[in-house]
Amino acid sequence: MVFRFQTTEGHCSTCEQGHGLASTRASVESALSAAYDVDSSEIVVSILGPYVVLEGFVRQKGHFKRAVEIAEGVVGKDYVRSRMLRR
């Protein structure tokens, strides 16, 4: 028996490879944590339909914009929604 992750049609059409939801989330989290110019320790990444949703807090205004740019680099510009707040 083979288990497969659920994928969404809208997101997968923008990917070169058909990623599962878990691997997409992990890719965004990894990219955020690897970025030297963003404190992503309080950012939670979730998947809602075809969208990657960034929730949580950032300390600086520039981190807000940069976190969105990083996520867009992974899944595409039209597939990132932000619910982050600045502390």
TrEMBL record:
Read off the InterPro entries from this record.
Answer: BON_dom (IPR007055)
An example of a Pfam family matching this protein is: BON
Species name:
Rhizobium favelukesii
What is the protein name for this chain? BON domain-containing protein
Domain BON span(s) in chain numbering: 20-87
